[in-house]
Amino acid sequence: MSLEAVNIITTALLIVGALVIIILERKFPYRKGLPIFRDGFWVDLIWYTFIQSFFLKIFIFDVILFPLDQHYKLSALHLVTNWPIVLQILFFVVTHDFYIYWFHRFQHENKVLWRLHEAHHSVKEVDWLAGSRSHIFEIIINQTIEFAPIILLGASPMVIPIKALIDALWGMFIHSNMDVKLGKIGNVINGPEQHLWHHADKKEVFFSNYATKFSLWDRLFHTTYLPGYKPDKYGLYYEYPKDYFVQHVFSVKRVDENKLRKNKKLKWYFDLRPVTLHWMAKHFPFKEKFKKYKNRLSVHFTDYKTS
Predict the structure, then answer these.
(1) Residue 258 lies in a domain
(2) Within a domain: residue 53?
(3) How far apart, in whole angstroms, are the C-alpha atoms of residue 285 and residue 196?
(4) Average pLDDT of the residues in 89-104
(5) What is the pTM of this model?
(6) Residue at 33 is within a domain
(7) Whole-angstrom distance, CA of residue 14 vs CA of residue 132
(8) CA-to-CA distance for 107 and 138, rounded, in angstroms?
(9) Are residues 220 and 278 in the same domain?
(10) Burial class (CB within 10 angstroms; exposed 0-12, middle 13-18, buried 19+) of 250
């Protein structure tokens, strides 16, 4: 199978997987009443998921990893090239997850690293999309370390899209608002029940549940926190900005977003999004068209039932 075909298949699986998780969130909610378009949804979807991911992919691979490999030519050693692809994927998934456990733990224990990680914990209504909110430098560090060994050790090019798919689906799963109990397998595999506690606004869990894919790391290093009931609050205990750029400024200098919004020099920026949305609503009345379509459907089904 060609790399292009693998890219198409993994992209399709990612979309389907996201839709399945969204449906399951509605069907089996961990917290009832959580809206689909919760506070910060569009920032997470547009800025973090689409825009940031697009540009960071170019930066990490084209500016850092590929030039690094061209300079040192480590991939020419073919250290893992002859391994079966399944073994390659398993090796990089496990080793990277072990690294993520410890880096994640250091982020919670180090004041400087916490500044790069707090954005991820700022979502107060944690759902399938919440995991996408991560500081730009946190992503650069983590994904460079994640994909560098894959390229430098001479792994199959197919490993990158397949592992990226596993990361994305697992990230959506553990952050999802699904009431899932994994039972004994939860001692090895991480799921929403354990990770949603990690996002709780509760001091007891601030230094717990660091695992991403394998909860085994938390068990081995005694950082599991699963009290048997559900948390009542999520997010940070302090005020955190809602705007994408202000969130990044906040990691360097603590600023008051409300004061910035009142600044006359910045008024044009904070007005940009509502003005754009108003313009779009005026020229592209999606809601009105949806209502008309919905009304037509209801009429159609009414006629069908009475016929």
Answers:
(1) no
(2) yes
(3) 37
(4) 98
(5) 0.88
(6) yes
(7) 14
(8) 10
(9) no
(10) buried
CA distance 191 to 201: 19
Q: Does the residue 64 lie in any domain?
A: yes
What is the C-alpha separation between 200 and 86, in angstroms, rounded? Answer: 35
Asked if 28 and 60 sit in the same domain, the reply is: yes
110-159 per-position pLDDT tens digit: 999 999 999 999 999 999 999 999 999 999 999 999 999 999 999 999 99
Q: Based on the structure, what is the number of domains in the chain?
A: 2
305 vs 126: CA distance, rounded Å? 41
SS (H, E, C) the chain: CCHHHHHHHHHHHHHHHHHHHHHHHHHCECCCCCCCCCCCHHHHHHHHHHHHHHHHHHHHHHHHHHHHHHHHCHHHHCCCCCCCHHHHHHHHHHHHHHHHHHHHHHHHHCHHHHHHHHHHHCCCCCCCCHHHCCCHHHHHHHHHHHHHHHHHCCCCCCHHHHHHHHHHHHHHHHHCCECCCCHHHHHCCCCHHHHHHHCECCHHHCCCCCCCCCCHHHHHCCCCCCCCCCCCCECCCCCCCCCHHHHHHHCCCCCCHHHHHHCHHHHHHHHHHHHHHHHHHHHCCHHHHHHHHHHHHHHHHHHHHHC
Q: Are 56 and 136 in contact (CB under 8 A)?
A: yes
- Give dist(CA 234, CA 250) in Å, integer: 20
Specify the amino acid at residue 3.
L
The domain in which residue 289 lies consists of 263-306
